[in-house]
Amino acid sequence: MAKLFLDANIILDLIDSDRKAVERTRSFIYEGIVSGDTYCTGCDIFTTVYYVASKKLSSLQVIGELEKILAFVEVIAIDIEILKEAMGIVRDSDDFEDVLQYVCAKKGECSTIVTNDKGFYRGEIELRSCQ
What we know:
The chain is α/β, with parallel strands linked by helices.
């Protein structure tokens, strides 16, 4: 059993069935749930996912899918300490949003960050892809 942090692109795979890694992502999540893994994500991921998914799906469809995800995903709140830590880590070549998610994963004591973003910030937490 592991505690895994889900990046926005993974959650989008759960909502949008036209995405490239949908089947692998859904299978990965299902297998993890069956084996007792715990999933979490940062609270701001929901606004990002909503923004992207609502370009294709209706607002109510997106909200409905996000509600389903809340049934098995723990949400980590972003507070001033997380913001300050992320700001202290980020460099010119880093994506601040990725660093912020990394710090959320650290706060949540996650062993792995699941992302299909090949350029995701590389810190001390293992990265895993569903692609």
